[in-house]
Structure formats: structure tokens, C-alpha cells
Amino acid sequence: MDNITKNNRLLWIDIIRIIAIIAVVAIHVEDSFIFYWNKIPLTDWWASNIYNGFIRFPVPIFLILSGYLLLDKQEDDEIFFSKRFSKVVIPLVAWSMIYWIFKNNYNVLSLFTVNFVQQLFANKIYFHLYFLYVIIGLYLITPLLRRILVHASAYDVRYYLVLWLFFVPISSLLGLLGYRNGIPLVAATWDFGFFFIGYVIKKTRITKKIVYLSSLLVIVSIVVTIIGTYYLTGRSEYFYGSVHVLFAITSVIYSPCLFILIKAIFSRFSVGIGSASGKLINAIGRATMGIYLVHPMLLHFIVHGVSGIRLLSVKVLSPIVSIPLVTFLLVVLSFIIVLILQKVPLLKKIVP
Q1: Other beta carbons less than 10 A from residue 317's beta carbon
Q2: Strand (E) or helix (H) holding 176
């Protein structure tokens, strides 16, 4: 158990959520540039690539945080599901309906079709909603995993981590080099591994040496991602495929190390829950899921232009400016929308 106060613990958890949601939004913003190799000036592409190197961590960080908070906790299965499932299933169904109407030219009647139901079950409504499906899957396995971990030895934990490292990042690296692994291991999935790493971090005594090593590995991961993205994109002449394999590999090092680093830094600070800064941090932390759900719709309008102005066009602003600017605008506007929705009794359930 962390030897820190409740206020501190809440602070670093909220800070991680806030940093991660900003990175999520930034990734979706810089996608307007990083995919356009040879279609935009090289300096603009490089600006996007450098930003990209720093922000390729949010989904693993969210999964690590979930594992950290959930897997060591013992509670009745009924209590677990009643507390959490409604916070995922209701938003998933509600926002699937909203985004389905949105992408079908605001045709409400399109909801009453077999196609909508099929797309909902197939996780094909809108690109960002996949994360809710991942969370539902992890929640379903959590009660069983908790019972297994109660009786698991340190050796058992290390054994699974070694399996996961081989069947996910190392196999991905070998595949990049032309050596494909033909042995399937269903339990060693990308998402589940990060969820499990959260538990491992909680059970590990984080020393100064580990923090310093994590800091070094964060820097190395960023540099490798930036240079590797440039090399692989230049070699294939487009941003896809092998580049995403690179992200899968570097995120295995980057995300856990960044999690440890952020926790180590912010668990030292104390902010009163009743203070202005404490209230703001807590409010943003509680709004991160809502921000995640809302921002793609706002981004759509920015990408396609507002009043004829396209902030994400290299003809208007350099990505050096537009990526942080649009990210900030999206986070702030999404946060305001979420705050409003949270004040409405019925609607607050869709932005938990």
C-alpha cells in the first residue's frame, strides 16, 4: 500500500488521467498531418512526428491505471459489476446512437435498422468507441483474475509477464523483421497485458533507482519512436502498418515507465480537495471519460472547417502551433460540454 495521504493519491491519479486524455486528443489532432508523408512540407511532417513521439502512451496508461486500481481490490462480484458496468454500457449505447446519427447526416430513423445493431455489436460505429469495448472485456475478466492473483506467487506473475512480452511486443518486432510467430496465445493480448502491468506496478516497491531508470527509458522510447517513425515511413512511403507495430513495441517500455514517473513526481505533492486547484484537478479528472467521448465530434468540425477556416491546414497554421492550439481548444470545449451534461440528471449518466 502506498505510504501517501488520500489527497495525494487522488491527485496523482487525476493527473495521470488528465495527461492521458490530453495525449489522446493530441494524437487525434496530429493524425491530420502524420499520415500525409510527401503530401505536406517535410518540416510540417517532422513537427507532427516529434509531437507524435511524445504522446504515444494514453491508452496503455489508462489500462495500466485500471489494473492498478482494480486488480488488487477484493469485493463481491455483484457490487463490482453494479458499480462499474453502468458507467461503461450506458455511455457506449448512448454515444453509439449519437455518433451513428451524426455520421448518417443526422437521420434519427437510421437507429431503427438492423445495420445499426450489427455495427454496434461489431464495434464499428465510430473509431474511438473501441476503448469502451476493451474496458467491458477487461471488466468481465476482472473478478476471476482477482481470485487467481490472490493465490498467485511472484513467480506466477513473472511467468505471465514473460509470456506476454514474447507473444506481444517481441513477436511484433520479429514480425517486423520478417519472422512471424505462428503460435497463438489468446490470454496474451495487448490490452490485457497493460491491465496486468498495473497490478504488477502496485505490488512493486518503487525505489529511486527504478524511477531514474524509468526516466531514462522514457527518453529512449521517445527518441526511438521519433526516429523509427521517420525511417519506417520513409522506407514504405506512407504512415501505416509497420509504424503501428513500432508503436506497439515502444509503448510497452514507454507507458509503464511514464506511469511510474508521473506517480513518483505527483505523489509528493499535496493539494487540498477543497482548494480551487484541487477542485479543478478533480473536476477534470472526473470528466476525462466524457472528454474522450465528446471530442471526436468537435474535431470533425475543426478538420472540415469552421466558418471556412481550417485550423488544421498547413496553409493556415504550422503544425508546430496548430497541434497544441487545437488540442487545447478541444480539451477545454469538451470539458465545458461535459460539465454541462453532468448537471443534467438524465444526461449525466452518459458522461460518467
Answers
A1: 17
A2: helix 171-176
d(CA 108, CA 104) in angstroms, rounded, equals 8
Burial class (CB in 10 A: 0-12, 13-18, 19+), 5: exposed
Q: How far apart are CA 237 and CA 87, in angstroms?
A: 42
Contact 331, 25 (CB under 8 A): yes
Instruction: Report the C-alpha gap between 85 and 87 in whole angstroms.
Output: 5
Specify whether the CB–CB gap between 192 and 70 falls below 8 A.
no
Residue 12: per-residue pLDDT: 93
pLDDT-flagged residues of the chain (< 70): 1-9, 184-187, 238-242, 272-273, 306-309
Cell of 181: 510467430
CA 1 distance to own-chain centroid: 25
Residue 5 has a pLDDT of 46
Q: Say what the pLDDT of residue 239 is.
A: 64
DSSP state string for 12-40:
HHHHHHHHHHHHHHHHHHHHHHHT-TTTS
**How much is the pLDDT for 4?**
43
Instruction: Give CA–CA dist 63/130, Å, rounded.
Output: 13
Q: By the 8 A CB rule, do 6 and 271 touch?
A: no
Q: For 240, list phi and psi in degrees, rounded to 5.
A: -175, -175
pLDDT at 207: 96
- Round to whole Å and give the CA distance between 234 and 187: 35
Amino acid at the residue 77: D
Angstrom distance (rounded) from CA 341 to CA 352: 10
Per-residue confidence (pLDDT) for residue 259, from 0 to 100: 98
pLDDT at position 316 is 81
Cβ–Cβ < 8 Å for 263, 5: no
pLDDT of 241 reads: 55
User: CA 86 to CA 92: how far, in whole Å?
Assistant: 10
